[in-house]
Amino acid sequence: MNRKDCKCFREHVHPYQYIRGIPPGPSSLQLLYGDVLSISMKTTIVLLGPPGAGKGTQGEKLTDEFGYVRLSTGDMLREAVRNGTELGKKAKEYMDAGALVPNDLIIGLMKEKIKEVNGGVLLDGFPRTVEQADALGEVMKVDLALNFDVPDEELISRLTQRRSCPDCNAVYHLVTKKPKQDGICDKCGGKLYQRDDDKESTVKNRLEVYHKNTQPLIDYYEKKGVLVTIPSTGSIDEIFEKVKKAIQ
Ligand code: AMP
C-alpha cells in the first residue's frame, strides 16, 4: 500500500500512536516519516501577503512535500458560494466587490475548521484583519508568519492572468505556470476559469483593501517575533527554497 493511502498518514498520526490509541497532535506529526515535518519544523504557519503573492501556490507545495493541512478561507468561501449555502449567499456580494467578508462570518468558520485539524497547519488568507488575528490567538499559537512580498504592478499582471480550477482549487498562470493542456487542470482534469474577482477593476480594489486592512498584520506578527518576509518575485522553485529555510 502507498503510505499516503494509510489512515495514519492521512490523519497525521504516527502508526505507533494509531495502534495504541494515543491522541494525535502536533508532536505526533513530527514523529512521522522522513519526508514530512521533522522535529524542528514550525507547526502553525500563517501565510501573509497580498492577493496574487503566491500564498496558494507555495501552500500547495508545502502540503505536497511535508503534509501540512492548508486551510484557505478564499477556497472555503468560493465553495460555499458554488453550493449556495447561507454563508455563500452572505459572502458573495463582498467577494464580487473585492471587499472583505465581515469578521463575524469568517472567525466562526475558521475556528470550527481549526478544531478539526491535527498537526501542521497552514492558514492561507486568514487572518486578514487585526480582529481576526486576535481571535486566532485565542485558539492557537502562531509559530511563523510568512510574508510574501511582491510589488503591486507585478500582482496586477499575475492576478489578471491567473486561471483557477473550480474542482481542486489548483492555480495556473497564462504565461509562467501554464497547464499542460490549455484550459484543463493538470491535477484533476477540471475546466479552468477566471475568477470574477481576478478581473482588473476588482483586483485594484482587492489590493487597496489589502494595504488598508491586512498589511498591519505584518507589524502585528513582527512584534510577536514570528515574522519572516520572503521577497517573492523569482521562480516558484526559488521562492520555495526560501520558504523551506524559513519553516525549519
Ligand atoms: P482569496 O482567495 O484569499 O483571495 O479570497 C477571496 C475573497 O474571499 C476575498 O477577496 C474576500 O472577499 C474573501 N475572504 C477570504 N478570506 C477572508 C478573510 N480572512 N476575511 C474576510 N474576507 C475574506
Helices, strands, pairings?
Elements: H1 7-10, H2 15-20, H3 26-30, E1 44-48, H4 55-66, E2 69-72, H5 73-83, H6 86-97, H7 103-116, E3 121-124, H8 130-139, E4 144-149, H9 152-160, E5 162-164, E6 171-173, H10 200-214, H11 216-223, E7 227-231, H12 236-247
Parallel strand pairs: 1-3, 1-4, 2-3, 4-7
Antiparallel strand pairs: 5-6
The protein binds adenosine monophosphate.
Adenosine monophosphate binds at residues 51, 73-74, 77, 94-95, 98-101, 106, 125-126, 128, 132, 197, 206.
Unreliable spans are: 1-35
CATH architectural label of the largest domain: 3-Layer(aba) Sandwich
Assign an overall shape.
globular
Tell me the fraction of residues in β-strands, as a range. Answer: 5-15%
How would you spell out the order of helices and strands? HHHEHEHHHEHEHEEHHEH
Query: How many separate domains?
Result: 2
Largest sheet: 5 strands, parallel
SS-based structural class?
Answer: alpha/beta
- The tally of strands reads 7
* Average pLDDT rating: 86
CATH topology of the largest domain: Rossmann fold
Q: Largest beta sheet: what is the strand line-up?
A: 2-3-1-4-7
Give helix % range.
40-55%
In CATH, what is the class of the largest domain? Answer: Alpha Beta
Alpha-carbon distance between the two ends: 30 Å
CATH superfamily of the largest domain: P-loop containing nucleotide triphosphate hydrolases
**Number of H- or I-type helical stretches:** 12
Radius of gyration: 18 Å
Q: Give every kind of bound small molecule, once each.
A: adenosine monophosphate
